[in-house]
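To whoever picks this up:

The parser on our side crashed when reading a file containing two proteins. I've narrowed it down to the boundary between the first structure block and the second sequence. Both blocks are reproduced below exactly, byte for byte. First block:
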Amino acid sequence: MIETSPFIALIAYLLAILTATLLLRAVPKIARHLQHSGESRYASIDGLRGYLAFGVFVHHSIITWIFLRTGVIGFPPSNFYSMLGQGSVALFFMITGFLFWSRLLIQGRQHDWLAFGVSRVFRLYPLYLPLMLAVFLTVFYLQGWQLIDSVPQLIKQGLLWLTFDRPDVNQYPQTGMLISNVTWTLAYEVFFYLALPLAALIFVYRGNWRQVVLCLIGIYTLYQLVGWEHSLKKHFLASFLGGIAAAYWVRRPQLAAWSRTTLASVVALVALALAFTVFNRAFKTAPLFLLALFFVIVASGNTLFGTLKPRSIRWLGEISYSTYLLHGFVLWLMVQRLPLLLHLDARETWIFLPLMVVSTCLLILISSATFLYIEKPGMNAGKRVVQWIRQRQKGNKPLTEKVAR
């Protein structure tokens, strides 16, 4: 059966890797980008991202298949397919915790908080805004361009979508399902970004006890504020701790050196296999521990026998945000909407599987294009904004300071 056979995932991954490989050969701009970016300090994590984002796509493909046949939206019966979604998200949270906490430990009080804040906005929104617009236009198209809610209600819905919440738009039921509700994870990312300066004051900069108390109150307030509509779950937030632990792990030369051994590769793969086969939920103590063990080894530079090094995998890592954010909408268009227009029954295996094949290749193509023409220009625009702010700050310095210089 599709919902339990791991071969479906294997074939999908091979198709994604093949599509990325062909793109690298056919589009010089992609090859130049990878060559220009070179081997980053955390190249193994860059490769891991590609597997994770595509894993969420496979997870939602299986959920879509079950929904088409049963009308029920829920986790797949297979532990593997269930964890392919939840486990991938947990590891994404660990990547976020690791990268930004590592930067804090390295830069200390020299950390550029302005650049951090601006870069996060220009990382999340340039792609999200067109997707949000596509969702709203799709809803009105499906409803025959009828305005059911009032304009103030639509404005409120738009503002909530801007905060990555997913209220029904214009009374279209379960609007978030058009994109597989993927934006729920972005609320957790935003909370981490907002809480990071306060956490730094407690654990990195280490002020007095009054400062610690105020920062803890601030973190709790942010926790309530960001999760005001749908409360943030503490066991989901625990995933970030795995990444923070990895930031300290890699700073220990002996631990980092061991993590790059063949034995460590075996330990990491066994931990991942246990997490993905024994458990059906990622956000519990035992699976989170196994995933964290896997992650600290990868974060130390272990490429898992070279599986994280190929250029095709690195490209899948580069486009991972596009893949993650867009895959739900691609699935809805290709597997739910297109069969209706073509009078096909997607509940038939011989119809669903070819549609999934096309969706896989199309997703990699679209994600590659959106990375090159939306994400990358957006990140570059963020850097220009920081430079502009810095220039304005220099221009507004007091005259006495300018004379002193």
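<<boundary where parser fails>>
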Amino acid sequence: MGLFDRVGRLMKANINDLVSKAEDPEKILEQAILEMQENLVKMRQGVAQAIASQKRTEQQYNQNLVESNNWQKRAELALQKGDENLAREALVRRKSFQDTANALKQSLDTQTGQVDTLKRNLVQIESKLSEAKTKKEMLKARSRAAKAQEQLQGMIQGVNSTGAMAAFERMEEKVLMQEAKSQAAGEIAGSQLEQQFQLLEAHSDVDDELAQMKAMLAGGSQPTGALPPGQASSTPQATAPVDAELEALRRQLNQ
């Protein structure tokens, strides 16, 4: 029995869990309101029947009470006329109607109490139904807001968990890297341009110096630092290597 009880309890728990997950608050609220309205209709019908029964009992009570009074008057009339037998018969009839009226009065009192209770219950049910309708709209709005919030959180989690955001971040990093490379290339290009201008300026100084040397050699003037007359003078054989070196330097500068 212990095993069967555990299996039965497990099945009930699983079924209850499935039912709980399948419940839609909005649909359940609508169904609850419909059931309350149906119960209210039945309650009104029951109250109406109770009131009708009360009215019928009240009518019967009044009728028997009237008949009892009538036979009382007839008995008095018969006794006044000296007919005791007829008066006795009239009193028997009066007692019968009076007994019936007394029984109907007890039933009427009971029915009156029941009708009053049913009326109070009906008012309470109507009030609860009105309150439930108001709460239903509020709960439906809260349920929709909760669903929307849950869907939004699911979307946010989905974005964070998928590769879309990671791909976006990779592309952003790639663009930043490309910008950094472009900036570095620009800086390198500027540095190379500066070096080229510095080289041109250096070549310009060499050309100026070479031109000055040519002018000095062509004009026979002695450059600064040359040997004074009387000392070792340059001979054609001695200046030949210098001319060759100057010619090589000229070709190198032209290139």
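After patching the parser it read the second block fine. Confidence is low (pLDDT under 50) at residues 221-236. The CA atoms of residues 71 and 145 lie 76 Å apart.
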